[in-house]
Design a protein that fits this description.
Radius of gyration: 18 Å
Number of domains: 1
CATH superfamily: 2,3-Dihydroxybiphenyl 1,2-Dioxygenase, domain 1
Strand order of the largest sheet: 2-3-4-1-13-16-15-14
Distance between the termini: 46 Å
CATH architecture: Roll
CATH class: Alpha Beta
Shape: globular
Oligomer: single chain
Structural class: alpha+beta
CATH topology: 2,3-Dihydroxybiphenyl 1,2-Dioxygenase, domain 1
Number of strands: 16
Largest sheet: 8 strands, mixed
Order of helices and strands: EHEEEEHEEEEHEEEEHEEEH
Number of helices: 5
Length: about 300
């Protein structure tokens, strides 16, 4: 049975694209690996961050929906927290960095035996740093400010909040191949294989809680990785055979995508690892130029004038 290899990327919503770039490249030390536009609304930015090449499992992306977009609200049917891996020895470095940069954060806590430092970005999006044993073995990319030994390694995982956990669990453990590995109160942990990078989904059951509201500071969707289009079609077939409604395969230039909404309300994507972000830019210059999908290339002159400057 084909299955997901874990998280491919997480896509969220921000208000000010320049502030977003400053926060994720300046404060967190991620690399801006692609500056493009929302394929469905080319008047707005779609920004991609990650490690040196934005490999699957490290890519956090944002739709910049502007100052008029209301703030989101976490609740049922939402991905409520996105967690990054750091080495165990880096927790003190990051706690001090958040304090020095006046970044809203909470006290460190323990979850499933791991030390976790929760914090928020400039739009209030809930994030966390997880000190993971053996994370030093995962290559770290340095932006010249955050030392490579302390760099974010990619995703640890995502927390979902749903009214009933079992239907979401069936998706994760079925076509996606995750396994339940632990429980803490109303939180159940699911893992895809034994890899440290981007393989954890925590599902919090909150029966009777308010539904979430999408907006700035909230996650739009979670994308799960499959190696190839063949694997993607197999997972799509399995899900459709069990009654889910999925989109056709959509070409997103840097990967191929299929979308569906889970019974708990969270939007899931199945994304291929190929072809990657270097398909239209040299690795040394990723994220430096505006890249447009073919269907919007005729708008380049207009968009270069109207898109908000990032620097």
């Amino acid at each position: 049975m084909s299955a997901s290899a874990g998280i491919h990327h997480v896509t969220a919503i921000c208000r000010d694209p320049a502030n977003n770039v400053a926060f994720y490249t300046g404060n967190l030390g991620l690399r801006l690996v692609k500056r493009t536009v929302n394929f469905d609304d080319p008047s707005t930015w779609h920004l991609y961050y990650g490690d040196e090449v934005g490999r699957p499992g490290t890519a956090l992306t944002f739709f910049a929906w502007g100052e008029q977009q209301p703030s989101g609200r976490n609740g049922n049917g939402m991905a409520t927290e996105t967690a990054f891996i750091i080495p165990e020895s880096s927790l003190g470095y990051w706690a001090q960095r958040l304090i020095e940069r006046d970044i809203a954060h909470e006290a460190p806590e323990k979850r499933f035996g791991e030390r976790v430092l929760p914090f928020r970005d400039a739009d209030g999006m809930r994030l966390a740093l997880v000190a993971v044993k053996g994370a030093d073995e995962i290559p770290g990319w340095s932006n010249g400010d955050v030392p490579a030994e302390h760099a974010l390694r990619g995703f640890r995982g995502v927390t979902l909040m749903v009214a009933a956990g079992e239907p979401t669990a069936e998706v994760l453990t079925g076509a996606f191949g995750f396994q339940a590995t632990g429980r803490e109160g109303y939180l159940v942990r699911y893992r895809a294989g034994s890899d440290r990078l981007a393989t954890v989904i925590d599902v919090r059951t909150a029966e009777g809680f308010l539904a979430g509201r999408q907006g700035t500071g909230s996650v739009h969707h979670i994308a799960f990785a499959v190696p190839t289009k063949t694997d993607q079609l197999e997972v799509r077939r399995q899900l459709m055979d069990t009654g889910y409604q999925l989109t056709p395969v959509i070409d997103r230039d840097y990967f191929f995508s299929v979308y569906f909404r889970t019974p708990g309300g969270v939007l899931f994507e199945i994304a291929t690892n190929e072809p990657g972000f270097a398909r239209d830019e040299d690795t040394a210059h990723l994220g430096e130029a505006l890249k447009l999908p073919r269907q919007h290339e005729h708008l380049r002159a207009e968009l270069e004038k109207t898109l908000e400057p990032l620097n």
